[in-house]
Specification:
With about 350 residues, the chain is of the alpha/beta class. The protein contains 13 helices and six strands.
Length: about 350
């Protein structure tokens, strides 16, 4: 088994396609998004303070701003999102005794938020107030004013790379697990390599374990490269340092075992080599697009989001982001891990039924 592992690992490193799709391709995305994030992102996720005066036209006008994405949650959750920079501002509308400006809008933001985004929120609010004055309150100097003094709360900077890198790592693991295993075992059967293995004393289980172990080692090396570049070049967040890194590697190992199961299924149902990509894409493409790899699944229509949450890559991405940025432990993300374990049981149950040795 160890001899097969060593030989297979050597052949993987000698394969240009394996290196390109497992390392180079995800790194290209990381580099692109990394450089984009260094230029700053416009984010208008906001929340309305529950203590705001809501019995006024200013509140109605602000709630109807199409450029604002309002977070509706409890105070603790809102403060947490504010501290992470995911929420640009908390808006509070208060009545004043000033007849020239009956209402004042106070903003609370975070050190993690981009200052340009705060300025954007101010500009949008002032534009809405100006339009409101022009249409309905021509006799009043202004219906409301925006307080220029923005209250700041401490927070950890949330960069674009903190969202992108987990998705690209999942992209790499899923691609290698499905395509790599499917092509590998199909070619081993087609070239009669498995038949030659049968002439040796090695057991069938050890053949699979040897090949699988080589893939696991290669992809874990890939994960180390991706995380290292993201952390040291683009400041990808590892909250607890090595502890967080080890947790990520354990999570990656579990996910890779699952994704390789999909590869065993594809290699079993494929009739010829040309039929492998269509079957593999049926498994990988929906997850690449719908599992929060490139953008949050919250951007999808409400009716589609339950399907997105069924996909295993969604749970890997969620757990990965919670561990890396939130500092969550493996126990804390156990719901996502348990979902992956359920998928492992289902996938390998199917793979055991349809996997072909000859």
């Amino acid at each position: 088994m160890l001899a097969i592992t060593k030989a297979s690992l050597r052949s993987i490193f000698r394969s240009p396609s394996a290196v390109v799709f497992s390392i180079a391709f995800p790194l290209i995305f990381i580099l692109v998004f990394g450089f984009l994030s260094s230029g700053g992102n416009i984010n208008v996720n906001v929340a309305m303070d529950q203590k705001s005066d809501t019995l006024n036209p200013v509140y109605t006008a602000i709630r109807n701003i199409t450029g604002f994405n309002f977070l509706k949650d409890d105070t603790t959750k809102i403060k947490s999102e504010l501290a992470k920079g995911r929420l640009t501002a908390l808006i509070s509308i208060q009545k004043t005794n000033n007849v020239n400006a009956p209402y004042v809008i106070n903003l609370t933001s975070s050190e993690a938020a981009n200052p340009q985004n705060i300025q954007l929120v101010k500009s949008i609010l002032n534009a809405v107030i100006g339009k409101l004055n022009q249409e309905n309150f021509t006799g009043t100097p202004t219906m409301a004013v925006v307080n220029n003094n923005v209250e700041q709360v401490p927070g950890r900077i949330y960069r674009t790379i903190d969202f992108v890198l987990p998705g690209q790592l999942g992209f790499s693991l899923l691609s290698a697990g499905v395509f790599g295993v499917a092509f590998l075992f199909f070619n081993l059967r087609q070239q009669l390599v498995l038949k030659r293995f049968y002439a040796t004393p090695i057991r069938r289980l050890y053949i699979i374990l040897g090949e699988a172990l080589s893939r696991v080692l290669f992809q874990l090396i890939t994960a180390i490269i991706i995380i290292s570049i993201g952390h040291f070049v683009f400041k990808f967040t590892l909250v607890h340092g090595w502890i967080t890194f080890v947790s990520i590697m354990v999570l990656s190992f579990i996910a890779l075992i699952l994704f390789m199961g999909f590869g065993f299924i594809v290699s079993g149902v494929a009739k010829n080599e040309s039929s492998i990509p269509p079957f593999a894409n049926l498994i990988t493409l929906p997850q690449f697009l719908l599992a929060g790899t490139f953008f949050s699944i919250d951007n999808f229509p409400t009716w589609m989001q339950p399907f997105c949450r069924i996909l295993p890559l969604t749970h890997f991405n969620n757990a990965m982001r919670n561990i890396s940025f939130e500092g969550a432990s493996l126990i804390s993300v156990w719901p996502d891990i348990s979902f992956l374990l359920i998928w492992i049981l289902v996938v390998y149950g199917i793979a055991f039924k349809i996997f072909k040795w000859e």
